[in-house]
Structure to design on (947 residues):
């Protein structure tokens, strides 16, 4: 039996999928994006977060039965309101077996997987088979830049994108617009070319950079060192997506 | 909103109307003494002289007139005389009748001249009853005063070449309103005179019900279209903000100028109409603090109406406040309200359910402090050497003692005569009885305050003292006495480790339910009051979430110091129905599930679940719809009342540092909204803490 580690469960998470949803934030992520606004999600171990509201331990270990039990208590309400459960992170793929078991125990709830796509194909297929919708992050298409800004190669991510499309699981591509990094015309065009016409694609969401990204680093005793100019306005170039026939929007 | 309305709104916000105000008020005392007037006569004379002293203000672009120019309501007795009058008696708040709702629809449709006829017919019938005769004479005097005021406005309008205004005032408030415009103009003057007469928290009730007939007739006859009708209603709403800084209240903005929209009609059929939606739209577009909007809903209310409500919530005004008809109406019926009256309920100044025209209820005679009852029970514990059940039985006794004490004080309640307000109510004129002597419903309401704190404290005691036996009761009491000095670790354990209300955790929620059941038992056991009514237990806190923790001059309730849920001395209690401050909860659904467990049939005085959402939740139409679904969930779970706030933490922090930049920042405080920068610092800090917690 595999247990999971979760750093937060947030009800009424309005921006994580349709209807009224509860989002489970899994702890631990293979990437280390320079702009990560949830630094406490990166380590797969519990850690103390200190905020003006006082210290709190982030990271609770659950059995699949425990977590499913918590989520099922509100199943009727979530179903009544066109919603369900979103698994986000951190990175759900790193705990795929745990999440798959939790989903199997859910009371018929709509499931969204919010993933960076970095993980083994086998892990990803475990979740694809159980997800109603995937929010799939694409950050940088250039392999070197990807490695430089996230700490990892994007090979698995691009591979899993094709796997997802072949499975016909509906998906939304999410692109964080990081000033001077991901928001270049080259990168956005490359993303548009890559996803254009992919079966299962619903749309592309461009997520404008949040200048509060560094807000939580001090709370876990880390320094925020983005390596790009936070103040620079982002290039929300929707036109390259239109040109490629892709429905894209700024959210 | 067109340019004219923008201008009207800006004038109010800039304080433009203050230049019309008279620097000296009227002196009534000498006259009252010289003529040796009775209390009733003085009350009527007050209304008359105030109306006579009002100066006419008609701005060129106004279509609904009346601007208050008198700063104050003058005394009709000297302080010494007042002290003698109230010797051995209980004065409610500032004294005058307040926080009720008139039968505005009745007065608008009858007109003051018809009310005058009814008074005179009744006077003839009551010729042998000096008290009734004196009241009816007083009532007629006040009617004549209002007619005189309206006539002076009409004459001035004519002189200014405003035949339109003069024509309105020739018809109303003397005669029945015939059009939507006349009804709004009549209502403006009739309500303003209540304030001028010294009453306060003057609610406007179900405007979408009693004004709808006028609107429909105008639309059908082509006298108005939707746009021109909205224009009039918007002007009326703006006018309610002109004088609100002159209204008495604990904090500015706490003025009880509420409206109640939606719900069902007295026959039980749906009451939502075009005016319901229009009022919500206008309130959203104006974004002003008056009138404060209450929306009656049920589990079946459509998402379109709830989305309109959510759009208003997004404005950050702290309203609409939602009341669930599915729960409120049966609750009122279970407390002796006739079903048709229960279906006609409105919300008073904060959240209390009252019946327009038929209630002379004092809905806030005070608060029961649940935390003080728990504290007292714990302190008797070591000596009693008892069990958790022993503690609970003493909590029950403590709650009953507080209820009996408050109700006992109000057995000596003395309400001043209210001849003018009486003409706006049902039956006062007909029966020759002043409103202060009672109406159909004469119940008293008691707030049940600090409920989540008390339930959390009991849950912590049960777990740590009795189940785990990890904390001797004597050690706990010592730590409380020391305000947790030197025992911060214990305080954190109490605050973080135990079960908490707001997480759908039965270990805490069962105690919350038990506290309110004990409260309801105590109110029922008290039986009938001397006023012939009952005690209505409620779930609100009003300002008591601060007062019960910090004390306040003249309050009747006990103050509690540090408490067993880990709250330090002086820290505020939870406001209304909300998790204890600083408690981390999973989110709004769990909070609703916790509070859905209360038996609201037994606690019908009102008091909202208070939820705060960051304004970042409301991005687009889809988000608005989700907020609407959250409100529908509140109703479907069987909760009673909901106050939903949209807050932006950055704005609040910046407003505290630079108040001059944020003059328009409005926040919900407890049962009301006010300008953040006009609140005292402890309220500002409390709101900021609530919000910080939510984002952490």
């Amino acid at each position: 039996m595999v247990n999971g580690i979760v750093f937060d469960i947030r009800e009424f998470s309005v921006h994580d999928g349709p209807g009224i949803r509860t989002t489970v934030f899994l702890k631990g992520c293979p990437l280390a994006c320079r702009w990560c606004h949830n630094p406490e999600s990166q380590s797969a171990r519990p850690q103390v977060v200190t905020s003006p509201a006082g210290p709190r331990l982030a990271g609770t270990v659950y059995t699949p039965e425990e977590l499913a039990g918590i989520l099922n208590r509100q199943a009727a309400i979530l179903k009544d309101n066109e919603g369900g459960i979103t698994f986000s992170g951190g990175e759900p793929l790193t705990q795929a077996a745990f999440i798959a078991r939790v989903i199997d125990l859910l009371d018929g709830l709509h499931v969204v997987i919010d993933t960076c796509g970095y993980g083994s194909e086998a892990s990803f297929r475990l979740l694809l088979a159980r997800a109603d919708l995937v929010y799939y992050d694409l950050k940088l298409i250039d392999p070197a830049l990807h490695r430089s800004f996230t700490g990892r190669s994007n090979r698995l991510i691009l591979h899993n994108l094709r796997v997802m499309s072949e499975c016909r699981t509906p998906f939304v591509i999410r692109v964080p617009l990081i000033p001077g990094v991901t928001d270049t015309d080259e990168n956005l065009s490359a993303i548009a070319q890559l996803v254009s016409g992919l079966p299962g694609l619903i749309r592309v969401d461009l997520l404008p950079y949040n200048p509060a990204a560094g807000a939580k680093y001090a709370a876990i005793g880390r320094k925020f060192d983005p390596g790009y100019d936070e103040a620079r306005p982002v290039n929300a170039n929707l036109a390259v997506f239109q040109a490629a026939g892709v429905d894209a929007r700024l959210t | 909103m067109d340019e004219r309305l923008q201008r009207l709104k800006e004038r109010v916000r800039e304080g433009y109307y203050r230049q019309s105000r008279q620097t000296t008020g009227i002196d009534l005392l000498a006259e009252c003494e010289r003529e040796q007037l009775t209390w009733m006569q003085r009350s009527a004379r007050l209304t008359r002289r105030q109306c006579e002293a009002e100066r006419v203000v008609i701005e060129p672009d106004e279509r609904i007139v009346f601007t208050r120019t008198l700063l104050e309501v003058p005394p009709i007795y000297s302080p010494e005389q007042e002290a003698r009058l109230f010797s051995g008696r209980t004065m409610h708040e500032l004294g005058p009748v307040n926080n009720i709702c008139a039968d505005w629809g009745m007065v608008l449709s009858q007109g003051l001249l018809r009310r005058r006829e009814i008074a005179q017919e009744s006077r003839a019938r009551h010729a042998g009853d000096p008290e009734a005769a004196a009241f009816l004479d007083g009532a007629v005097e006040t009617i004549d005063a209002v007619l005189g005021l309206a006539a002076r406005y009409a004459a001035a309008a004519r002189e200014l070449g405003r035949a339109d205004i003069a024509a309105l005032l020739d018809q109303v408030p003397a005669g029945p309103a015939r059009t939507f415009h006349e009804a709004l103009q009549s209502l403006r003057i009739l309500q303003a005179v209540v304030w001028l007469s010294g009453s306060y928290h003057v609610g406007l009730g179900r405007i979408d019900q009693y004004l709808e007939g006028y609107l429909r007739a105008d639309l059908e006859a082509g006298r108005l279209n939707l746009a021109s009708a909205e224009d009039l209603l918007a002007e009326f709403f703006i006018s309610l903000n002109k004088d609100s800084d002159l209204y008495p209240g604990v904090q500015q903005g706490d003025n009880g100028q509420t409206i109640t929209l939606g719900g069902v009609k007295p026959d039980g059929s749906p009451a939502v109409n075009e005016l319901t939606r229009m009022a919500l739209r206008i309130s959203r577009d104006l974004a002003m603090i008056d009138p404060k909007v209450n929306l009656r809903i049920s589990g079946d209310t459509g998402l379109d109406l709830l989305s309109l409500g959510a759009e208003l919530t997004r404005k950050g005004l702290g309203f609409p406040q939602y009341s669930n008809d599915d729960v409120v109406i049966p609750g009122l019926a279970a407390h002796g309200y006739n079903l048709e009256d229960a279906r006609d309920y409105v919300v008073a100044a904060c959240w209390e359910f009252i019946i327009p025209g038929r209630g002379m209820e004092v809905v806030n005679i005070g608060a029961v402090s649940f935390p003080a009852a728990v504290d007292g029970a714990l302190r008797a514990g070591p000596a009693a050497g008892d069990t958790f059940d022993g503690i609970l039985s003493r909590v029950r006794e403590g709650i009953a003692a507080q209820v009996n004490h408050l109700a006992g004080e109000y057995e000596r309640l003395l309400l001043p005569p209210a001849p003018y307000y009486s003409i706006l109510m049902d039956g006062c004129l007909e029966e020759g009885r002043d409103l202060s002597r009672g109406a159909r419903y004469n119940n008293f309401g008691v707030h049940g305050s600090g409920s989540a704190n008390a339930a959390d404290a009991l849950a912590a005691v049960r777990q740590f003292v009795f189940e785990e036996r990890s904390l001797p009761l004597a050690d706990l009491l010592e730590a409380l006495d020391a305000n947790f000095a030197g025992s911060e670790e214990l305080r954190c354990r109490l605050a973080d480790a135990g079960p908490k209300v707001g997480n759908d955790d039965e270990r805490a929620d069962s105690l919350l339910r038990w506290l309110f059941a004990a409260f309801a038992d105590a109110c029922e056991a008290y039986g009938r009051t001397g006023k012939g009514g009952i005690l209505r237990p409620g779930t609100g806190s009003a300002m008591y979430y601060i007062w019960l923790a910090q004390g306040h001059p003249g309050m009747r309730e006990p103050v509690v110091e540090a408490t067993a849920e880990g709250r330090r001395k002086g820290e505020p209690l939870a406001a209304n129905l909300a998790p204890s401050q600083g408690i981390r909860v999973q989110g709004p659904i769990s909070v609703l599930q916790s509070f859905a467990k209360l038996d609201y049939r037994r606690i019908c005085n009102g008091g909202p679940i208070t939820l705060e959402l960051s304004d970042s939740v409301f991005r687009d139409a889809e988000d608005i719809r989700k907020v609407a679904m959250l409100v529908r969930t509140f109703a479907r779970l069987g909760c009673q009342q909901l106050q939903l706030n949209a807050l932006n933490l950055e704005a609040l922090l910046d407003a505290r540092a630079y108040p001059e930049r944020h003059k328009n920042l409005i926040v919900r405080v407890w049962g009301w909204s006010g300008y953040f920068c006009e609140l005292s610092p402890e309220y500002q800090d409390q709101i900021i803490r609530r919000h910080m917690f939510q984002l952490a």
Observations:
- Chain A has a mean pLDDT of 92.
- The two ends of chain A are 39 Å apart (CA to CA).
- DSSP finds eight helices and eleven strands in chain A.
- Chain A has one domain: 4-250.
